[in-house]
């Protein structure tokens, strides 16, 4: 079962979505993909999945990702289809439909509309895994939905074969497709921030500025000094470049000593 998890992003049109994760911007387009001019949508105008229940009833799901369905054959025929085209055009004005038949005439429930949809990542930590399209149908009685998880697959295409109910009491369902349209395009890479080292440098710099400001103010107002003498610990700051130079020279001498120790022949060290 794939659970729906909300994620912030921007929907350009019903078949496109952009989101940001791990400092990168990912763009999904279910309408077009390499080698598939129709994208993740069925060329027939709809997908159809049948589920046989233990009590003998048959539940049929029709859906078409990110647009309303079209039927040139095998159109749904059932009662209670008013919210999805009515009895004469059942299924043609929604994007997901369920029909339950218990021996008599099947009864329809609209599960999704192309104009009422949302997107999320299958795994926010791995955006390249794919995207979830959730189609929602709201009525005065209840709100139903169908979530289609489109897994990224460049090698093979796997059409939906199973529809799973998310909760026993509700009318929310989920299914999955493996398709190249689920593979995102990295449209931009954003800066990942200054990081902990950059933050440390900023804190040290701010502390140094505060130190100078407070020290100068104290020496000028309390001690009555001015000019360069107003800088706190002036002798230390004057000698700092020379101390840094001596430190570099000591470090270089230490490294060179170890280098000679390991590169000179053993007999030369013994003679010394």
Automatic annotation (TrEMBL):
InterPro entries: Autophagy-rel_prot_27
Record's bilayer topology term: Single-pass membrane protein
Superkingdom of source: Eukaryota
GO cellular component: a single term: Golgi membrane
Keyword flag Transmembrane: yes
Keyword Transcription on entry: no
Compartments, record wording: Membrane
PANTHER family, A to Z: MANNOSE 6-PHOSPHATE RECEPTOR-LIKE PROTEIN 1 (PTHR15071:SF0), MANNOSE-6-PHOSPHATE RECEPTOR FAMILY MEMBER (PTHR15071)
Entry protein name: Autophagy-related protein 27
Major subcellular location class: membrane
Alphabetical UniProt keywords: Membrane, Signal, Transmembrane, Transmembrane helix
Membrane-spanning segments: 194-218
């Amino acid at each position: 079962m794939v659970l729906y998890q909300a994620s912030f992003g921007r929907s350009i049109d019903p078949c496109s979505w952009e989101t940001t994760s791990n400092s990168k911007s990912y763009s999904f387009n279910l309408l077009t993909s390499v080698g598939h001019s129709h994208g993740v949508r069925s060329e027939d105008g709809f997908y159809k999945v049948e589920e046989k229940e233990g009590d003998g009833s048959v539940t049929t799901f029709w859906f078409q990702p990110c647009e309303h369905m079209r039927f040139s054959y095998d159109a749904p025929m059932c009662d209670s289809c008013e919210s999805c085209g009515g009895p004469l055009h059942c299924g043609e004005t929604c994007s997901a439909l369920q029909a339950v038949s218990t021996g008599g005439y099947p009864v329809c429930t609209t599960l999704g509309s192309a104009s009422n949809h949302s997107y999320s990542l299958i795994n926010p930590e791995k955006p390249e895994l794919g995207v979830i399209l959730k189609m929602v149908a709201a009525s005065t009685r209840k709100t139903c939905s169908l979530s289609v998880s489109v897994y990224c697959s460049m090698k093979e295409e796997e059409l939906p074969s199973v529809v799973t109910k998310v909760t026993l009491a509700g009318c929310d369902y989920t299914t999955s497709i493996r398709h190249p349209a689920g593979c995102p395009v990295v449209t931009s890479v954003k800066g990942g921030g200054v990081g902990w080292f950059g933050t440390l440098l900023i804190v040290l710099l701010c502390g140094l500025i505060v130190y100078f400001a407070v020290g100068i103010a104290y020496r000028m107002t309390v001690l009555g000094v001015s000019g360069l003498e107003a800088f706190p610990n002036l002798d230390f700051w004057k000698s700092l470049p020379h101390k840094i130079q001596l430190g570099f020279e000591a470090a270089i001498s230490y490294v060179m000593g170890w280098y000679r120790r390991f590169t000179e022949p053993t007999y030369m060290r013994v003679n010394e």
